[in-house]
Amino acid sequence: MPRIFVLMLLVAGSLGAQMPKGIYAWWGRPEIRRDLRLTPQQQRQIQATVREFRPHLIDIRAEVEKAEIDLQAQFDQDPVDQGKANQAIDHLIAARSDLTRTLSELSLKLRMVLTEQQWQELQRRRPLSPGPPNELVPQK
């Protein structure tokens, strides 16, 4: 079980600053999991859910990074081709939208595992600021 949490932390790090506002990778933080007093069944459900989403999240993050590189390449052209730059912008918007949607779906599935009391405790512990990008990645 600890190995799965480490794996989730690695995935979380790869998604950096892409978490939508209000979503943070609490499932990868042992102190939060402990304080929530998750049952063994809840822990299994959380692990299975994160495992289910992991491959898609990795692919989406790679797509976002590629779109960011493509957009930067268009901006670096002289002269800038406005049509190609707009296409690169649209691609980046679509990639980020897909990432936001997927992270939101993951968060919803995880929320459904928690009791009302656990959810309230989680909200109480929500960071006021997002923190460094590596803390925002979906973790185990």
Question: How would you explain this protein's 3D organization?
Answer:
This protein is about 70% helix and about 0% strand. The chain is mostly helical and about 140 residues long. The protein has one domain (about 1-135): Four Helix Bundle (Hemerythrin (Met), subunit A), CATH 1.20.120. Helix 1 (about 1-15) packs parallel to helix 3 (about 40-75) and helix 3 (about 40-75) runs antiparallel to helix 4. The longest helix has about 35 residues, at about 40-75. It is elongated, with a radius of gyration of 17 Å. Mean pLDDT is about 80; it is low at about 1-20 and about 130-140.
Question: What are the SSEs and their pairings?
Answer:
Layout: H1 2-15, H2 30-36, H3 40-75, H4 82-111, H5 116-124
In short:
This protein has 140 residues and is an all-alpha fold. Helices cover 69% and strands 0% of the residues.
Number of strands: 0
How far the N terminus sits from the C terminus, by CA atoms, comes to 10 Å
SS summary, helix count? 5
> Portion of residues in helices?
55-70%
Sheet/helix structural class:
mainly alpha
Shape type: elongated
Regions with little confidence, pLDDT below 50 for 5+ residues = 1-18, 131-140
Largest sheet: none
Element order: H for helix, E for strand: HHHHH
From the coordinates shown, what is the CATH architecture?
Up-down Bundle
CATH class descriptor name = Mainly Alpha
| Domains, number | 1
Q: Compute the gyration radius: what is it? A: 17 Å
Proportion of residues in β-strands: under 5%
Find the CATH topology: Four Helix Bundle (Hemerythrin (Met), subunit A)
- Overall mean pLDDT stands at 81
